What we know:
Elements: H1 4-9, H2 26-36, H3 39-51, H4 56-69, H5 74-86, H6 90-103, H7 108-123, H8 135-157, H9 164-176, H10 187-199, H11 207-220, H12 223-226, H13 229-241, H14 245-249, H15 255-281
Helix pairs in contact: 2-3, 4-5, 5-6, 6-7, 7-8, 8-9, 9-10, 10-11, 11-15, 13-15
Amino acid sequence: MQSTFVQESSVNHSTEYSTENEEFDLEKYFTYVRENSDFDSWTYLLHYLEQNTVPIATIREIFDHFLSKFPYCFGYWKKYADFEAIHSNPKRVEAIFERGVTAISPCVDLWLFYIDFVRERVANGEEDGGAGESHEEKDSQGQDRVVKLFERAIEAAGRDFQADRIWTQFIEYLRQQGLEEGFEGGRKSRKMFEIYQQLISIPMSQHSQHLEAFKTFIGQNDPGAMLSQEQYEAVKAEAKKRVTDSAEASGTKTINGRVTQGYYGNTDWNYAASYGQTQYDYPYGSYGYNNVPTT
């Protein structure tokens, strides 16, 4: 729907925006939308910014006013950040994303936009480091920063029924990093194990796929790398109970392998049970029984 001001000022919506359009007075139009707070007029103005060359100071003023009135329009936080990125202002980009995820913390898409921006800067070596730091130290700090950002995203938006992408991208990020040596005592595998544990306890749209991925992960990793020493000794003792007497009596030299197999089997059963309980508790997802079909 065409805004009242546009109709009165004879600005043609059907024509391409252009700085040559002398009929469009940006300052006058900005004054109008500030006074009237009409959403259609605001989006018309923001589209004009995308199609024309406008000073960054003006862009900031317009976006700041718009987002103070409509903070839940997550796509416009991204557009604002893109403008700052074009003008090579990474600190301002991050500040905008921070404002956005503070305003709408459960927004999965906005968190992922933010994480992608930081990941790209870390991958390109563009993150600032301390004076005298080696390349390896900067890489490690960058990786830790991405991990902490993922953790914040999970804390804020990770229980949304459609939040699968945050979890799976976090796990895949860890998998791709050469972090094992830096993660004391197998910290990388342990971290992934902990994330999977949290993930399968939350009802999500791809819940069954997450359980299968977790089972595959368990089967491909040494329990000692996934658990603390205390946890490992406890599950090792439990797994040994599952080893048959005949296997022990035969003097087999594969007892450790059988213990590991027993651990996998025990874990598989436990988490399958956890998955089943979650499905029972939340048969229609994290939105609860409001989503129960009526027909």
